[in-house]
Amino acid sequence: MIEIRDLHKKFGKNRVLQGINLKFDKPGITAILGPNGSGKTTLIKSILGMVIPNEGMIKVYDKNIKSQWKYRKRVNYLPQIANFPNNLKLSELLAMIRNLRQLPAHDEDPLIELFELQPFLNKKLGHLSGGTRQKVNLVLTFMSEGDMLILDEPTTGLDPVSLVRLKELILKEKAKGKTILISSHIMSFVDEMADEVVFLLEGKIYFHGSVKALKEQSEETDLERAIANILSSNHA
Amino acid sequence: MLKILKYSFYDLIRSRWSYVYLIFYAMLGTVLLFLNNDLSKAIITLMNVVTVLIPLIGTIFGIMYYYDSREFTELLLAQPIKRSSIFLGQYLGVAISLSASLLIGLGIPFIIYGIFTSPAIWDFSLLLVVGVFLTFIFTALSFNIGLRNENKIKGFGYAILLWLFMAVIFDGLLLISLVYFDEYPLDKFSLIATTLNPIDLSRILILLKLDISALLGYTGAVFQKFFGTSSGMIISLAVLIVWVVTPMYFIYRKALRKDF
Amino acid sequence: MIIFRNFLEVNFAKIYTAFVLCGLIISPSYAQSLEVCSNCAFDNIQEAIEAATPGSTIKVRNGIYRENNLLIEKSLHLVGEELAEIDVENQGYGIVVKSDNVTISGLKISNVGQSYTDDYASIYITRSNHFKVSNNVLKEATFGVLVEKSHYGLIENNTISSTKTEEASAGNGIHLWHSSNVEIRKNEVFNLRDGIYFEFVDDSKVIDNYSHDNLRYGLHFMFSNRDEYHYNTFTENGAGVAVMFSKFISMSHNKFFRNWGTASYGILLKEIYDAKIFQNTLEENTIGIQVEGSTRINYKNNDFIQNGWAIKVRGACYTNNFEANNFLNNSFDISYNSKLNDNKFSGNYWSNYSGYDLDKNGVGDVPYRPVKLFSYVVNETPETIILLRSLFISIIDFSEKVSPVFTPDNLLDEQPLMKRVGHD
Question: C with A: 3 or more CB pairs under 8 Å?
């Protein structure tokens, strides 16, 4: 479904991605992990075509994505920072996304209910709190029925109730047989949700495999410790 | 692209700034009209204002909107939309809403004052045409600055510099070089130099209306041909169109390559 | 002045009556009425003129007469019917008048000859007094009405034109030389060299004429004194109206429109003295009034509208008084290349004035400086005109206004008006 070959990207002198080769061809949840600045977001954005690679090739559903945009219909993306045009009302933003993605009306109603956003429908987006914005962000991501989900730090700013609902949502999507990519810092979240882990370090893939394999390799039972172990042994 | 344009436009006409801009123009028009009590004099003052202020407002507003809507842009980039549509749509949204503020803001006081029954209607229309051109040009230029500068402060700085250069410094340099190279035939040079600056070009269009008598006092055959026939008007308008299309093309090109 | 003019008019009437009476008494027989047409007693004008007794009226019936150099040496009234046409076929003059008391009216005279040595004219009046030329159409004229050493005449309601495009081959519409007491009224003259030309012409009036699209001047005065012109319109002539080397000229209620071009102006005043310029409208001329070496001129209640330069003052001018004029939206109000001398600008309305009137007496509280630094720059480097109305120029003009360095600092209107001068 996603095939990445020899992907290089640098911003100025900063070589963020240095030869990434990846293949996601099974449905299920893959977590993308790595310390700050390891290139997680750049990798995700490259898949979405928001970052243009210097070298290498990305295929999504067997098609090179260079200068393509239609494949994004099949991809639902949750950006890391939830900011919206401040002068639009929530209902208008939803209408806009519906319009852009050509969705039928009221598709998002269950989601609005799920995250208890009804009171905000007629408020301007500029007036919403950070947590509420993240909820809106989630609604926008899940409201259309794509074949693939890419979530960049989905848990940021969520209260525990919403976090539980998010997890349920993700699992529901997984059950539909979708490919799901999640980048996150919250290891317990990853531990609980992910089938596979991609561990990025300094622009390269340090580890790609199941969570279990990672734990075994580092001889730890806890994912957080496993990661810390990798990092410290790497730097040692 | 039309969808993006529509949303940008809606977003903008709801922002406070559009109204500030609109009210500013309405007040300017009203004050000029009712203080002078003379339509043509108000139009002349306005023309002086328009060639300086519209570029400034276009530049600042353009760069502000570009930086303000960066997150919105990222949201759109993840949607199944062509990249160039996003940027051209936003650009057109800004340019059109600014132009609408200008047209409505100036239009209302002048219509109330009775522009339709006045012979000054053509001068006034030209003023609006030039204003719209300048809005489109300087918004496009500021979008280019925005696309090339991630740093907001830097971007703003460059935008203000661009305006200052086009509105003041360029003319100063032109004046100095004209005076310095006095003994050479300079009419071709000065006309070509003028086309390099859209503000000067718009000013020429206005001069053709207001100051044709003075312009025809000059001996040079090139001037005589440029100002004395309709070729001046046609060439100026054509070059202004080039000035709109070129930065738009650069927005398009940069939009295809930029990372977010 | 008015008394003097009335005196002239009365005198003129008296003399005219005396002459007519004399003519009646001297003539051998009483005035006849002759007709010219293809089947009348006379089928050409020349024979009718020869046959007529002095004081007779010759009626020229409708038709085309291919005749030229018609010589009139006695008092006659030549009257055309429905613009009967004399086609000169490029053979010299149309009509030559060498007698007093001749009237020519209602004729169409076309295709006058052209020569670089002779001044061929449709109607040539020489050494003849009390002439009257009215209601004629002079087409393809070289000179239209050419008057030499003749006095007491009226030229009225004629339309004079040609299609010439070069000054050298064209003549003047109404050309007076060494004449006096002639009145020129309600004529339309166009596409000629000078519309109306006066040289050594005194005590004459030019009223209500329309002179347009002439190659050189709409009206041209040389060495002529005590003349007046009022209510004329001069549009799109090569260079407007030139008044040169003349004294006591009065010009009022004239309109000067769109006299465009290098050194083109509404009015040129060159070496003239004691003139009055009242209530004229000068609109969209490259230069409204150019004044060179002229003294004791009063300018009052004139409107200068959207000219390139409303007034250009050149050379030694003294006692020029500009008072109660309206300067409306000119690119430059005044251009000045010498000392102010005792010329005065006072109590005018300047639309470019940006002062205030706190005591509400209708007069601005700060003086107005009508000369801009930029007009000096343009004078030196004409190409810089392209920077007119730019912000940079406004800035340097402003700094010059605050502390004058290049412009004469005493050239001020101390009493700029806050409102347009209303007149008429």
Answer: no
Q: Inter-chain contact B259–A100, Cβ cutoff 8 Å? A: no
- Residue-level pLDDT, tens digit, chain C, 424 residues: 444 455 445 555 555 555 554 444 444 456 788 899 888 888 889 999 999 999 999 999 999 999 999 999 999 999 998 889 999 999 999 999 999 999 999 999 999 988 888 889 999 999 999 999 999 999 999 999 999 999 999 999 999 999 888 877 889 999 999 999 999 999 999 999 999 999 999 999 999 999 999 999 999 999 999 999 999 999 999 888 999 999 999 999 999 998 888 878 999 999 999 999 999 999 999 999 999 999 999 999 999 999 999 999 988 899 999 999 999 989 999 988 877 778 899 999 999 888 888 988 999 999 999 988 898 888 888 888 889 889 999 899 888 888 888 777 788 899 999 988 887 6
Domain ranges within chain B, ordered by starting residue: 2-257
In chain C the domains, ranked by start, together with CATH numbers, are: 31-402 (2.160.20.20)
Which of C279, C156, C171 minimizes the C-alpha distance to C216? C171
Instruction: Please indicate if any CB of chain B lies within 8 Å of the CB of A147.
Output: no
Beta bridge partners of A167: none
Token pair belonging to B211: 């100051």
| Chain A residue whose CA is closest to B16 | A87
Identify all chain A residues contacting B12, using CB atoms and an 8 Å cutoff. 87
Residues 6+ apart with CB under 8 A from B27: none
Q: Give B22 to chain A, closest Cα distance, Å.
A: 17
Does the beta-carbon distance from B81 to A71 stay under 8 Å? no
**Both structure tokens of C100:** 């007093």
What is the H or E stretch that residue C178 is in?
strand C174-185
Whether C422 and chain B come into contact, CB under 8 Å, resolves to no
C-alpha–C-alpha distance, residues C152 and C183, integer Å? 8
Residue A87 at interface with chain B, using a CB cutoff of 8 Å = yes
Using alpha carbons only, how large is chain B's radius of gyration in Å? 20
Whether the complex's predicted ipTM surpasses the cut of 0.95: no
Nearest C-alpha in B relative to C356: B35
DSSP B59-74: HHHHHHHHHHTHHHHH
DSSP chain A: -EEEEEEEEEETTEEEEEEEEEEE-SSEEEEEE-STTSSHHHHHHHHHTSS--SEEEEEETTEE-TT--GGGGGEEEE-SS----TTSBHHHHHHHHHHHHTPPTTTTHHHHHHTT-GGGTTSBGGG--HHHHHHHHHHHHHSS--SEEEEESTTTT--HHHHHHHHHHHHHHHHTT-EEEEE-S-HHHHHHH-SEEEEEETTEEEEEEEHHHHHHHHT-SSHHHHHHHHHHHHH-
CA–CA dist A150, A48 (Å, integer): 9
Q: Is C399 helix (H, G, I), strand (E, B) or coil?
A: helix
Smallest Cβ–Cβ distance between B80 and the set A11, A52, A101 belongs to: A101
In chain B, residues with a C-beta closer than 8 Å to the C-beta of A49 are 77, 83
pTM for the whole thing? 0.81
Residue type, C218: G
The CA–CA distances, whole Å, from B240 to B196, B237, B243, C400 equal 10, 5, 5, 33
C309 contacts on B by Cβ (under 8 Å): 214, 217
Interface of B with C (CB under 8 A): 38, 40-41, 44, 47-48, 51-52, 167-169, 171-172, 174-175, 178-179, 182, 186-187, 189-191, 194, 199-200, 203-204, 206-207, 210-220, 223, 228
Cβ contact, residue pair C386, B191, below 8 Å: yes
Q: In chain A, what are the domains?
A: 2-235 (3.40.50.300)
Nearest CB to B260 within list A51, A70, A100: A51
Element (H, E) at C120: none
